Amino acid sequence: MIKKLNTSRAFELDALRGLAIIMMILHHLIYDLRYVIGLDVFAWQDSNFFIDWIRAPFVFIFLFVSGICCSFSKNNFLRSLKMAIVAVLFSGVFFAVSVITDSEMYVYFNVLHLLALGTLGYALLSYLEKKHSLKNINAILIFAGVIFLWIAYPLSRLDPSYNPFLLPLFEGFAAGVGMADYMPLAPWFGMFIFGALFGRLYYQNKQTRFPNCHANIRTAIIPFEFVGRNSLMFYLFHQPVLLALLYLLQFLGIIG
Asked: Is 148 inside any structural domain?
């Protein structure tokens, strides 16, 4: 008889985030094969079906789970600072690459910037709640989440234009800018906010919601848990590794 694991760690969050990261890596792999290596493959990745019905759900999972994890941290101010530093360095590297290669691979605002800003915002609300007895935090989160989800529609009705100050808000303000990666606040920030709300409501004890999950399931999802626990490292280094492998395969004549 197979024993069941009984652990307090919220392994389901690690696994979900890991799944989202793995799907992102696969997406970048097919993108690199088509647009970097130049193979005539995977044209469907430009379709609305792929963007709206395949990519979007995994982005949602990642942001939602990241929001939930704010309720687990003892120091979200420090977490936001670390993510902000990584985000700035990430932007700096891609700025240098763009200048050196005379290409447009800038990263002005992506998921790292969004997570740093969201974590900082949650840290401020938590501080006001604990130190100054700010009430109705959940209502504030609901209102903010709805605003960021809703505002994407009226903004989409505007004519696209370039505005460096509003570029982080919505893609319409990034018109004509070549970027290697981009994730505007509207609507994606709303998904992070609702994740933070979900964490407050359903992970108050900071433990798994499935303490009696069967051992076979836990064993099957170990790879996803590992990736989820190390999501930042996978995010930062997966693309250089992919490109190195693909260029090596191209050099060897295996692809291309």
From this structure: yes
Three-state SS letters, the chain: CCCECCCCCCHHHHHHHHHHHHHHHHHHHHHHHHHHCCCCCCHHHHCHHHHHHHHHHHHHHHHHHHHHHCCCCCCHHHHHHHHHHHHHHHHHHHHHHHHHHCCCCECCCCHHHHHHHHHHHHHHHHHHHHHCCCCCHHHHHHHHHHHHHHCHHHHHCCCCCECCCCCCCCHHHECCCCECCCCCHHHHHHHHHHHHHHHHHHCCCCCCCCCCCEHHHHHHCHHHHHHHHCHHHHHHHHHHHHHHHHHHHHHCCCCC
Which range marks the domain in which residue 65 is found? 7-72+206-256
What value does the mean pLDDT take over residues 204-223?
93
pLDDT at 59: 97
- Asked whether residue 165 is domain-assigned, the answer is yes
Which two structure tokens, joined as six digits, stand for 147? 């605003």
Task: Say yes or no: 116 and 163 in one domain.
Answer: yes
Average per-residue pLDDT for the chain: 94
What is the reported pLDDT for 7?
Answer: 65
State the pLDDT at residue 40.
94
pLDDT category of residue 231 using cuts at 50, 70 and 90: very high
Total count of domains within the chain: 2
186 neighbors 155 (Cβ within 8 angstroms): yes
- Phi, psi of 8, deg, nearest 5: -90, -15
Same domain flag for 98 and 155: yes
